[in-house]
Fold these 2 entries.
Entry 1:
Amino acid sequence: MESLVYVALFAPFAGSLFASLFGMSERQIFVGIVASALLFISFLASVFLAANLFITGEVIQVTMMDWINAGDFNVSFGFVIDQISVTMMTVVTLVSTVVHIYAIGYMDHDKSFNRFFSYLSAFVFSMMVLVMSDNFLGLFIGWEGVGVCSWLLVGFWYHKPDQSREDNPSISPSWAANEAFIMNRIADLGMLVGIFILYWNTGSLKYDEVFAQLPYLADAVLVGAAIALFIGAMGKSAQFPLHTWLTDAMEGPTPVSALIHAATMVTAGVFLVIRANPLYAMPEVAGVSMFIAILGTFVAFYAASMALVERDLKRIIAYSTLSQLGYMFAAAGLGAYWIALFHLAAHAFFKALLFLGGGNVMHAMHDELDLFKMGDLKKKMRGTWIYMGIASVALAGLPFFAGFWSKDSIIETAFNEHTYILWIVLVITAGMTAFYSFRQVFLTFHGEDRHTPLGFHPHEMYKYVLIAMSPLAVLAFITGYFMDTYKAFIYQFNDSVQYEMSDHTHHLAPYLAALVVGISLSAIAYAYFKYARTGEKAWKRDEKVENGFFYKLLANQYYVPKFYEEFITKPYMMVSEKFWTEVDLKIVDATVDNIAKFFYNAGDKTRAMQTGNLSNYLNWMAVGGVILLVIAAISAMFV
Amino acid sequence: MIGLSHYLIISAILFSIGLVGVLRRRNLLMLFFATEVMLNAVNIAFAAISHYYNDLTGQMFAFFIIAIAASEVAVGLGILIVLYKKHGSLDLDDLASMRG
């Protein structure tokens, strides 16, 4: 078993190293194949570990080696395979394998094909370290590792020039990569503080040992640690107000968006809250948990509202990711950790599928992402149409699909906890989700053909890519039916992940579900009548609506990026410029320069002494002798 | 009565003459003579002080200096001859070739 753990962990790393050997050379197809195969091995190992855990219920804990031993401070490279980590491992490796195979087709024409696989596999390795570690420091290393890989991959096309915010809201890949990295750094500081607080008060970084001591800690310590750790989670999972980087990160290649910025990395924040569930379940930190739920609900609504008017295909999916992360946080904040984790897994499948479908459209349309330039693609891209349809149905939460079970449970949880305001907001958001996902589908695949007049000749993606996507489509459908099995599985973990609806909610559940489905269906119907019809009643752009206050507010993302630019970036730039010209150039640099100049000038002036005439030298020697004599005499007088 | 101070004054005068010679003379041979004068000024001081304290160490030291001065002159004159053969002159102003 132990060796399987290492196989699952290090196979992606081996793939990354292998691909990096060819990083600078021409595109080599076998690099992608080897990396994908190694990931598949990692996936098999994860599935095997999951099955083993499910059957035997034995949590595996391995310690690879000591890492830091300094005085009382001991950390080892330890990994734990329990119900939570194995769920993440399986989801991560499965989605990564599909995305790797997809990328072989998608990155076909890219010069840096090999480099791409090296980064992508390195990301999977970091993510595995993050989810498998049995201590907070290992988690932090993985956390930073995925941050770096995200930076590398968002900025993969770093050579693209900067554009103005009006032409491209994310400016350029390198700009977006830096934004993502810097925002995450801000949040990581919070997380590091949280880890310090826990270490100072418990003397350990291991999850077991830390959580065992929680009941003996002071309230302030618990609340402080919970808040600080959640700040870290907010950055990685792009919660308000640190959310702007996620939509801008869509500048990266689409497989990256699917894997990192939808299915896996951004869920690390949710994972952290679930992992630290003994902490967040303490009655002392109920306030923090409530805040998490409220913030999650707010973000779910906030992001969905921006998706309503967005025209960029990938950004819509990014907003929906934000919104679904909000749902997960809402569930986790309300104490339904396992439901949050289940939604995380289900979401990973259908969101990755949706993104990869979006990637197919983008590939076919030669990187054009404007929905208003598409329409009626379903004839030319039937496979992609079906996939994106399935994913959108799952996302909208229609019955029998994965999203229905997981998202509906979250909404039910909000009802069960008597947080009716959250419940109402989540229900409304579910309707908005259905609307924007089908607005996207209808604008892309149905309605008038708007792309042919613009000179686009889309073609379907390679067959093997479509086949590679099929596991996700199947999972987007069937995942929901394993909810009860999964519940039994995760209930073995500990008491605080267990969550049951009350009898009262149980009775009302069918009606609540029917209400949500009804709202979603009417939203889809509205989207259909507005966007999918052809001929006379075909959808046309409406200047009046687009210049309206709300439309403008939403299209500009509530002016939050603008606010950040005006009130943070620009003042910071001004201050930096002042410090550079006033302090750095005039004080620091000037001091160093003057020291150098002094010696140079002294040498330049005294050089004249070197006449080459021995007599002169002797004279100078005599002068020196006299000076020494005088000094000796003077000092003798004073002694 | 001639005392220690007379010797020391003589020594000082000789040393000063030697020093001025070293500083003012332009001919290398004359510089050698001047340094010899300075060395012997020191020898006089050594011998006088040694006698004054009834300690033979100083006089021994003077002997050593005489021996070293002799060998120094032997080596130095050898170099001077080579220099003269090469440049045809022993004037320091003509020998300045390493201007900084």
Entry 2:
Amino acid sequence: MALKGNLRDFSTTQLLNLVNLAKKTGSIIIEGPGQMAQMAFRNGKLIYAQMGQEDGNLAFILHKAGKLNEEQVKVLRARAATAGDKELGLLLINAGYVSQGDIIASIRTHVLDVVYRLFTWVEGIFRFEPAIMPGEDKITVPIDLENVIIEGTRRVREWEHLVDELPSLDLALKFANRPNVNMAEKIKEMKLSVEEWRVVHFINPKNSMKAIAKANNMSDLEMRRIVYSLIQAGLVELIRPEGMARPAPVTSAGKKAAAQAASPEGKAQQTNVINKLISRIRSL
Amino acid sequence: MQTVKMVITGPFSSGKTQFIQSVSEIDVVSTERKISSEAEKIKESTTVAMDFGRITVDAELVLYLFGTPGQKRFDFMWEILSEGMLGFVVMVDSTRPETFREAKSILETFRAYAPTPYVVAANKQDKPEAWPIEDLRIALRLDPNVKLLPCTAVDKEKVKEVLLELLYSILAEMEAQSA
């Protein structure tokens, strides 16, 4: 019988629990809003995960984990473009660039990163395909699902809290205004993590949080977590990004009135409306 | 006939319905329902869709005041209500610090929906347990240039002051855009 449904009715947590208890082998394919993801399992253990069109090859994974620099990735892509992950892994170990442990740890982190992001999906059509497994060239790392489920559930709770606190990443950040304190200078004296510094570096009214996350290759969760701690410490504040459209006040006359409002006559008319409202409310 | 709209928002039981009631020329068209949740039983009923008040300026201009539902589970209404508004008032119950975080979150959400001018009204300032305005500013992490106004929603004059301050901000923003 086909195992398929919607995450709205059967969550990622429940799916992983099912795979774990039934010790399933195969892949779960999820078609989320705008993105597709795959998680593969062998005998109930997670072995592989891929998010949409994101780069999932070994060179990228090792670069993300800080084991290879950008230049090395470029060279590898030019010289070993056709090599699969297993072949590339052997090449890198033999050349002394990385150890086997580095490769396993980096793949594990990458797979878990994809799966934890899937925990935050609340909508998406899923199906279980017993015959679909990762390609022969892929390095798979078996991961017990119990800990993944516990950690994923914890992250969902954190995610929900952070979304409550920071509903939109379309806003930008600015250093907080405190009398007689240059916040940009003060931050330099503070002990921030590397990730926090990466965010602070991009603080500018022109950069939305979404843009900062993209520039730093950070997930929405990581971005929200860092911004939340900076806000809680009173170091930064949210502002509307420069260039974001400020909608002119719209009246019941609809779009036509909005278009008219942009003209000098429209602005004068709007000012007149506000002055009338002020007079009326004063007279109440 | 031209109609314009302002939105009154804020956490559950912050005084939005009373605020509109104090200045509306009609009885507020309310969508209140009896509260069933034990945790939220600090009042008998609450707004589930919106409150609706009216102030007629003249034969050609009417101001509508829309109050949003305060409970999080009705927040799907917020975006609909914020569409086309002149500006908004965020009501905060100065006596209930447990709602300050939610008030800040609602403020940020509305700013994201529609970046129009807004003011924050610190309600129930007549109560002895009300937090002082400057402490509230820190607790709500409000920028010094955000208007945080003392308010008592049952007092018509105080409500008028809040609405006037919002209108002054709207006017100032229009002038700044024209300059």
